[in-house]
Write a structure and sequence with these properties.
The protein has about 290 residues and is an alpha+beta fold. It has six helices and 16 strands. The strands form four sheets. Strands 8, 9, 12, 13, 14, 15 and 16 form a seven-stranded antiparallel β-sheet that branches. It has a five-stranded antiparallel β-sheet with strand order 1-2-3-7-6. A hairpin with a 3-residue loop joins β1 and β2.
């Protein structure tokens, strides 16, 4: 009989289990939007997130180490070798997580576009005049936020703010850690965005989370470049000056905005289309058939 595991932490989408010298992170089929968990689940979503993160962790190991140890069922405790957890579980190193969401924007969209229309800036960063919605930026910009508890909103902060926050937790290392995660964020985005464009996907923006391993090295944790943490647009038909179709949960956000009285419940058609978009993004990026 396998040992019973209970989550030590549960986020909007993920469950984290203590496995002694490692963690088991499970990506569920839940979906969140506007900081709320919706009532529906999206079939295969957890497996797509796990497989896609695994792909990117392997792809970017030369830039920064990551927390992934294995996603193979044989390497997981027996408790996770069931259909409920199949394909959704990742065994990971334990890290001391840094309290910063590392956001990088390569295109102007979403809240960044709204801010730019008001005063020509995004998160306090002055941008060139004359940009249109969905335009590619001259260079990717780093716009960190706080890491809010579940139900709260992350707050945009400056690089200096991020250094101050890290200094409080890691005296003497705040500015160094802030600079390292900023530089890693930009480097990861540039490498992966160039790769994705060759696969006919534009990565408009994304977020990363970092931690420290036992030796004090910066290590990327959580998820990486999934449809939950990124805006993916099809390259075919890309046209600045308007919003873009997407492979990510922006599709769900758009439906929720158009149907404000939905009570957090998506119609089956939207559920199925969302599941299809997640699988399609995985297949385009990895060149593998999702199974």
């Amino acid at each position: 009989m396998s040992a019973e595991f209970k989550p030590i932490k549960e986020g909007k989408v993920r469950q984290v289990y203590d496995n002694g010298d490692s963690l088991i992170i499970v990506a569920t089929d839940r979906i969140s939007a506007f900081d709320h968990i919706l009532k529906n689940t999206i079939p295969d979503k957890g497996a797509v997130l796990t497989k896609m993160s695994r792909f990117w962790f392997d792809f970017t190991g030369s830039i920064v180490p990551n927390h992934m140890l294995s996603t193979e069922g044989k390497d997981l405790p027996e408790f996770f070798q069931t259909k409920e957890f199949e394909g959704k579980s990742m065994k990971c190193k334990k890290l001391t997580m840094l309290p910063i969401e590392c956001i990088v924007r390569g295109y102007i969209t979403g809240s960044g576009w709204e801010s730019y229309q008001k005063d020509g800036t995004v998160c306090g960063i002055q941008l060139p005049d004359g940009l249109k919605e969905s335009d590619q930026l001259p260079e990717p910009i780093y716009t960190p936020t706080t890491k809010a508890d579940q139900g709260d909103h992350d707050e945009h902060i400056t690089f200096a703010d991020s250094a101050d926050i890290l200094e409080q937790q890691f005296p003497g290392n705040g500015e160094s850690y802030a600079a390292q995660i900023r530089d890693c964020t930009i480097a990861l985005y540039k490498k992966c965005a160039a790769y994705a464009r060759d696969k006919q996907i534009i990565i408009a923006d994304t977020k990363f989370e970092f931690g420290l391993d036992e030796s004090g090295r910066i290590v990327i944790g959580d998820e990486m470049l999934t449809p939950d943490s990124s805006r993916f647009w099809p390259l075919e038909g890309y046209q600045p000056g308007q919003g873009q179709p997407s492979f990510d949960k922006q599709f769900v956000r758009d439906w929720l905005r158009q149907n404000p009285d939905n009570d957090g419940l998506l119609p089956q058609e939207i559920v199925e289309k969302t599941a299809s978009k997640y699988r399609e993004a995985y297949e385009l990026l990895t060149g593998k058939t999702f199974s």
